[in-house]
């Protein structure tokens, strides 16, 4: 299990810029150290725990890039045609048994190993072969080494092809397979526990009494966390009872690497998460200079990290994507915790306070000139979950900005990029 140092999340009471908060987390979080070996076919989405180094060249031998005829460049005239004898045939997996000597050629197919003596390949459509397949007339002007792929063109013996901390994608599995990798060392899969609290919170499908609401954030959190390759235990909805919450937290801390919830971490008489966490470890509020959002609760249940996100759905999702997500990725050993941010043209105006990082929910559409343009969702409230479902991503506005105008270039984080 992940073990944090005491008071790992202790912060201060000032409004903290997001970049500073992320840097502090990166400095304080201890990644998972447990490793295991898994078959390559089962390693998709896992995080590498050791570099993969090639012990061979890819391709392992010089080979033809086209269907045609392997020749010796030395035999070709400066101008005019030359008639060559076809002495053998080479196909992928079936190399020629005879070398190419003076005045000779070998019929060769794409991927076949270059025959001894051959250094260049004519494409079959550029030559004239006899009907009986014994001779071929080739023209002048072939560039030395034409249509010949050299051994190690893709990967050389000793190359590090994939590095520790990389989350393996399908193309990475193919790259590892190309050097004969059978199994890989990966970090153990992280385990997360999530739960909601509140006597008024109900599971979908249950009847609602006066004052009740359906639990939405837990479903959002579970989906987001599982897309990070983390195994999630859903502890459901806990009642507003400190003893029950404390018991659930303590049990979860013995079986999980991180615990998350949204809402319910305040100082009201019915907010029991704060005293329950403090009784088992420690809890600190990080006051981030962001909108939407409010103080994020970071703490430890024993030595296991606890994250308390805002209760408003939009605020919970934004703070998860830009704050909790990189923390969880680092816990899992992932070296790439920063989402891809691209610039797009703004199709709206927006006023904001200086000194605060702000996210505007937006969709991307082509404007009249055919250029990608961000359009703001019509409703901005932190409790409007439809604004997340109805958008393509987040326009991120920096602390120093106070006024955005249509046509300005802005940073954009696609929900596809962060698995949302």
Commentary on this structure:
- The protein starts with 17 loop residues before the first helix and ends in a 6-residue tail after the last strand.
- The chain has a 6-stranded mixed β-sheet, with no helix packed on it. It has a 6-stranded mixed β-sheet with strand order 16-13-17-21-20-18, with helices on both faces. Strands 22-25-24-26-28 form a 5-stranded mixed β-barrel.
- By secondary structure, it is of the alpha/beta class.
- β20 and β21 form a beta hairpin.
- The chain has 4 domains: 161 residues, MoaB/Mog-like domain (Molybdenum Cofactor Biosythetic Enzyme, Chain A, 3-Layer(aba) Sandwich); 49 residues, Alpha-Beta Complex (Molybdopterin biosynthesis moea protein, domain 2), CATH 3.90.105; 87 residues, Molybdopterin biosynthesis moeA protein, domain 3 (Beta Complex); 73 residues, MoeA, C-terminal, domain IV (Beta-clip), CATH 2.40.340.
- The protein is elongated, with a radius of gyration of 30 Å.
- α1 runs parallel beside α6, α3 runs parallel beside α6 and α4 packs across α5.
- The model has no long low-confidence stretch (mean pLDDT 90).
- The protein has 7 helices and 28 strands.
Describe the secondary structure blueprint for this structure.
Elements: H1 18-28, E1 35-39, E2 52-53, E3 63-64, E4 68-71, E5 82-90, E6 104-108, E7 120-123, E8 128-129, E9 135-138, E10 148-149, E11 160-162, H2 170-177, E12 183-187, E13 191-197, E14 201-202, E15 213-214, H3 217-226, E16 231-238, H4 242-255, E17 258-262, H5 273-280, E18 281-286, E19 290-291, E20 296-301, E21 304-309, H6 313-331, E22 342-346, E23 350-351, E24 357-366, E25 372-376, H7 386-389, E26 393-397, E27 403-404, E28 409-414
Parallel strand pairs: 5-6, 13-16, 13-17, 14-15, 17-21, 19-24, 22-25
Antiparallel strand pairs: 1-12, 2-11, 3-10, 4-6, 4-7, 5-9, 8-9, 18-20, 20-21, 22-28, 23-27, 24-25, 24-26, 26-28
């Amino acid at each position: 299990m992940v073990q944090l140092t005491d008071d790992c999340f202790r912060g201060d009471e000032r409004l903290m810029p997001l970049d500073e908060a992320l840097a502090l987390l990166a400095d304080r979080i201890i990644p998972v150290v447990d490793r295991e070996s898994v078959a390559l076919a089962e390693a998709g989405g896992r995080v590498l725990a050791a570099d993969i180094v090639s012990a061979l060249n890819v391709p392992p031998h010089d080979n033809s890039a086209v269907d045609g005829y392997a020749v010796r460049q030395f035999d070709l005239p400066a101008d005019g045609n030359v008639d060559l004898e076809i002495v053998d045939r080479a196909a992928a997996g079936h190399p020629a048994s005879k070398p190419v000597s003076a005045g000779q050629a070998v019929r060769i197919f794409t991927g076949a190993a270059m025959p001894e003596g051959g250094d260049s390949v004519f494409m079959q459509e550029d030559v004239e072969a006899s009907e009986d397949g014994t001779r071929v007339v080739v023209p002048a002007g072939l560039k030395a080494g034409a249509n010949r792929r050299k051994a190690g063109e893709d990967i050389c013996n000793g190359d590090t092809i994939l590095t520790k901390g990389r989350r393996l994608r399908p193309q990475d599995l193919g790259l590892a397979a190309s050097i004969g990798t059978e199994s890989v060392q990966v970090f153990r899969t992280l385990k997360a526990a999530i739960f909601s609290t509140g006597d008024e919170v109900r599971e979908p499908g249950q009847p609602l009494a006066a004052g009740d609401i359906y639990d939405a954030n837990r479903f959002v959190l579970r989906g987001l966390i599982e897309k990070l390759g983390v195994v999630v235990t859903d502890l459901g909805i806990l009642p507003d009872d400190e003893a029950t919450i404390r018991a659930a937290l303590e049990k979860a801390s013995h079986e999980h690497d991180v615990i998350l919830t949204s809402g319910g971490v305040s100082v009201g008489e019915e907010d029991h998460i704060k005293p329950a966490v403090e009784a088992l470890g420690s809890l600190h509020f990080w006051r981030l200079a962001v909108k939407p959002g409010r103080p994020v609760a970071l703490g430890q249940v024993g030595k296991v990290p606890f994250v308390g996100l805002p209760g408003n759905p939009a605020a919970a999702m934004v703070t998860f994507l830009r704050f909790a997500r990189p923390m969880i990725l680092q816990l899992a050993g992932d070296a790439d915790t920063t989402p891809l941010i691209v610039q797009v043209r703004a199709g709206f105006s927006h006023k904001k306070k200086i000194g605060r990082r702000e996210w505007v929910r937006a969709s991307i559409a082509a404007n009249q000139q055919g250029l990608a343009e961000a359009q703001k969702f019509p409703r901005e409230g932190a409790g409007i979950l439809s604004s997340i479902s109805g958008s393509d991503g987040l326009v991120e506005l920096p602390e120093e900005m106070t006024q955005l105008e249509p046509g300005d270039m802005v940073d954009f984080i696609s929900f596809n990029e962060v698995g949302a």
